[in-house]
Each structure stands twice: as C-alpha cells, then as structure tokens.
Amino acid sequence: MNSEDRKHIVTLLGNWEEEFPVYTWSVEDVDVWPIIKMRIFFEKVKEVRGNEYRPTKINLAKLIHEVFRFIFLKKSAVIFAGSKHHRIKFMNSSINRYYLPLVEYLKSKKISFLQSEYLSDDEAGPQVIKLDRLIRLTYRPGFLSKIKKNDLWNDPTYRKFLSDVHTKLSIHPIKVQGLVINSIFSVKRWSFVYNALFYITRPKLVIGLWYYSNAQFGMILAAKKRGIYSVDLQHGAQGFLHPAYTFGKFPTNGLNTLPNGFWCWDEESAKHLERWFKTNIKSIEVCGNPWVTYLSNWTGYGTNLLHEINKKIIIYTHQPVQESIDPYLIEAIERTAGDFFWWIRLHPGTTEEEKIKIIELIEFKNLTNKVKLEIKSEIPLPIILKSTHLHISKYSGSIVEAALIGTVSIILEDTGCNTFKELINTNQAYGLLDPSADKIISLIKNHKGNKELKQVDYKDVLDRYI
C-alpha cells in the first residue's frame, strides 16, 4: 500500500471521528471506537500477522501447569505484557528486547515485576506467564450472544457510519459488524484474564506493546477498572500514517481502551501524540529506545564478527508488506556486492512462504555468497546498525532506531519518506520517493559517514512511575 492510499484511510478515520459521536459508542462497558477504527484499518491494509491469539490444539498438561503457576503468583509492582513476536534470541536465550533493559533495572532496584505474554511459546521460559493458555477458560457463548444484541448496532448514527465505510472503503457493513463483535468478545475475555492477574499481583504499573491488539485492549480495560496506570511503550514507527497514533479529535474524559500514557523513543514521536492528546493523556514521555540504550556500549557477542568484515556494511531491513525484494534493490546489490557487504534482515513477522520466495530470488540472482540473508540472528539490530555504513528500509521502526544510534538511513518510497520527513529534513536520512538502482548506488558511494549517538535514559522515566 502506498503513502497516498494509507493517508486516505487515516484521513477518513479522522473525518469520521469529527462527524460521528464515535467516543460515545460503548458495548458492555467497552469504549469501542479504538477497536472499530483499528479493525477497519487492518481489514483494508491486511497488515496483521500473528499478533492476536489464535487457538491451537489444547495441551491439557501445559494448561494445568499454567493454572497452578497463575494461582500462586506473588505481588508485583510492574507487569509487562508482550508477545513472542517481540522476542529475539540473545546470548542463547529468548528475550523480549524492549523489556530486558527495564527488567534488569528493576532487578537492580529490588522492585518486583512479572513478564506475561498473550501470544507465547515454550521458548519464553518459566519466567514468563503464558496467558494465552489461560484464556481458553474464559469462553462464554452466552456473552457473545449478549454482545450481538447490544443497542449500539441499531443506533442511526452507527448505521450511517457503516454505510459510509461501505461507500468510501468498500467494506460491507456485515463484514465490519462481524469483525467488531468478535473483537469485543475477545477484548472482554482478555480483560477477564488480566483482571484476575491484577487481582493476584496488585501492580502499580502495567506496560504493554502494541496497545491496539485485542489482548492489549483487554489489559488496558482491566487496568483502568482497577485504577492501575497503563503505558504503551513504543515498539516501532508511529507518525501521522499510523491510525493508532493519529486522531481527528479526542474526548475530554479519555477512553477505557486507550492507555494512560505513551512512552516514546524520540521527541518527534512524542510531539506527534501531543498534537492530538494535549492534556487528555496523563503522560507522553520520551524515554528513548531501551534496547538501543542498553546496547549502546555493548562489546560482547557479535562485535567480533562485525570487526572481521573487511568491507563497509549496507543493511536492508525487509518488511512483510511486500512478498519479495524489489528489482531496483536487487540490481543495486548486484552492482555493489564487490565493494560492500550486504546484509538483508527479514522482519520477525515474515511468513515461511515469503522467506522461501526471498531465498529463491537470492539464489536465482546468484547472490547467495554475496549477501548475508538473516532469518534469525542472535546479533541484535542496534549492534549491527552501529557498525553500518548505511541502513536501507521502506517503512520501519528500524529507521528511528538507526537515527538514535547515529546511523543514516536510505528511506525507500513515499510511505517511509512521508512518515520520517523530519529525519530527512534534519539530514538523519535520505528520502527516495522514486527509488532506482542508480540513485541508491549514488547515495551509498557518496555518503561520508554517520552522526553522533543520541541517547535518552529510560531509567529516569521509569523511576517516576514506580
């Protein structure tokens, strides 16, 4: 999806916030507009890849084990919520890269905490409570029927809104209705799980990633009912092309499906949120990227390998929004592979089918021995970026990570150029609205060097809330 199409959808969502009383829409005590908004967006751009809970075959032994672990949990001042997609392999362990720095800091302060996951696997280890096993116990078909009978569905303004969605985005009202009802049912189930978790652990602060998943909506709903402060920790690109962080207007009293605060990587992300939320959100903090800060002086695993590479490194961070790698980029790699070390890093959400297609393309172009194609790596991206001549991406949070480290990015195509225009304006990135092999090669060869590391300490922010 190009920038203009994406901008069209985000603009429509903002217009509907102005035109319809969306902030008054509630179903079974759930403020539903953020849910409706994100379901429409995801249905249109098809960017959701495995972030929601999907039932798999029940392992009764694991379920019973998790129930007993849950019952005997201790009080925790801070609860972290994430997904297996936020974890990477690091030092022979599977860790949540955004939470590890905060967790280690809490340990050093002797402050209790608990890590939870709403989409997990066995690699999470015993230190993580796997809530997606417990949600099976919350299924109530009668409650689903109750949601379907809610008065909102017959509200004239809501019906007019559905008609408008159909006219302007070609999504049938029945389709929207089904998506929204199923999401509300899921949110309520997750709210039940998190409410039980909070009852046992009595936290002061809950920190989540990707607040607009059903699981995180449920967590925020449960936290607000119990008066617990909830935070959305930035984990990727935000900006005006992201509907979860862009609004037409905002209600004075807030919503029970939005967090109390947002912790951002950089000033630009924070300023964007402040334009919409103003005083309606209790805190919009700049805490830096904890993972980047944590690794800023890293000299351990991975650094030796990077020092052994005798060419300047070009890293391309691929995203699963396209099936393969564009021909112009392949041509640029072919023409420069003798002088530069090309490193292609696939997004964790890339499907197996997409990975196979990319591998086949690399093999077909006889680039297997000239390109390092990473499907899984224990060398964290910030460590690689620190030693990189240039970083290339389309629309990725890695562009902000690179800027925080001081590494300049080449941003491909209009979506990325529009989203990160401030980085381009301040010479922290090059923008290519119409990329070609010649343009990329020219930037690579003429690039003089990177900038100084920018560092914001997350510890100061965390201290104020614990």
How is this structure best described in words?
- By secondary structure, this protein is α/β, with parallel strands linked by helices.
- It has two domains: 3-54 and 135-286, no CATH class; 303-446, 3-Layer(aba) Sandwich (Rossmann fold).
- It is 44% helix and 16% strand.
- It contains 20 helices and 17 strands.
- The chain has helices at residues 3-19, 33-45, 60-71, 100-108, 131-134, 141-148, 156-169, 173-201, 214-225, 267-277, 290-294, 303-308, 327-336, 352-364, 381-386, 398-405, 413-419, 421-425, 437-446, 458-465, and strands at 26-27, 30-31, 78-83, 87-90, 93-96, 113-119, 128-130, 205-208, 229-233, 261-264, 283-286, 312-317, 340-345, 371-374, 390-393, 409-412, 429-432.
- The strands form four sheets. It has a seven-stranded parallel β-sheet, with helices on both faces. Strands 14-13-12-15-16-17 form a six-stranded parallel β-sheet, with helices on both faces.
- Helix 10 (267-277) links the parallel strand 10 (261-264) and strand 11.
- The protein is globular.
- The model is unreliable at 47-51 (pLDDT under 50).
Largest sheet: 7 strands, parallel
Distance between the termini: 41 Å
Estimated share of beta-strand residues: 15-25%
Mean pLDDT: 88
- Label the overall shape: globular
- State the helicity in percent bands: 40-55%
Number of domains: 2
Radius of gyration: 23 Å
Tally of strands: 17
Number of helices: 20
Strand order of the largest sheet: 7-6-3-8-9-10-11
Model regions low in confidence, pLDDT < 50 over at least 5 residues:
47-51
Q: State the secondary-structure class.
A: alpha/beta
